[in-house]
Amino acid sequence: MGAGFSGRCDQRPSSSPKNPQGTIALPDFAVDILDRRFERLAERNRENPAPKEFGLRLACRPIELIFPSFEWTLRDPVNVNHQWQRVREALGLPEDLSPYAFRKYIALLLDDAGLSARVTADVLQHADPAMTQRRYMARGRIHHQAAALVHDAVMSGADNAGQDQDENGRARSFWTLSRQSPDPGTNSAPDR
Predict the structure, then answer these.
(1) Are 68 and 62 in contact (CB under 8 A)?
(2) CB 69 within 8 A of CB 75
(3) What distance in Å separates the CA atoms of residue 114 and residue 70, rounded to the nearest whole number?
(4) If you write DSSP's letter for every residue of 1-41 in order, what string do you get?
(5) Structure pTM?
(6) Coil, strand or helix: which one is 129?
(7) Which of 55, 62, 66, 184 has the most neighbouring CB atoms within 10 Å?
(8) 172 φ, ψ to 5°?
(9) First and final CA of the chain: distance in angstroms?
(10) Among 130, 131, 123, which Cα is nearest to 102's?
(11) Are 111 and 143 in contact (CB under 8 A)?
């Protein structure tokens, strides 16, 4: 990424959960896009220099903003929303597609790839992985991998029904447990 690129620089208290203090790895395409953006901003700065001084709202120099306004200040969120609406309409994207939806998509992508909640929390810059799990990671989904694991465990027991225990003395599978006869008059599975 281009030298001197520090991203969004609004100032927040260091104790704020909205003030992540970490660094994340970016995909190569994002680094390329940001490098080109930095070059365009450097060219713009030569033609229309950014002010040397900056207001109290900024914790960085205006030239360090990735998407500054025309006056080299932070963009107004209302204006950004209007610009995003025009882009969505031009691309034929759904009305409810928001930056939050992109964050959710990244979390689901990482979850589907089997990455841990800690990794996903780090990528999303969350302090608490439990919050990442509650808000971003999928619940109530069909997990074919879990079904395959259970199938393999049960069916491997059926194939090895004559072997009651593994090398650690544990029952090898549900099949082995279910083949044991409980005491007469009970309907419960045997204790392990």
Answers:
(1) yes
(2) yes
(3) 42
(4) --TT-----B---TT-TT---------HHHHHHHHHHHHHH
(5) 0.57
(6) helix
(7) 62
(8) -70, -30
(9) 58
(10) 123
(11) no
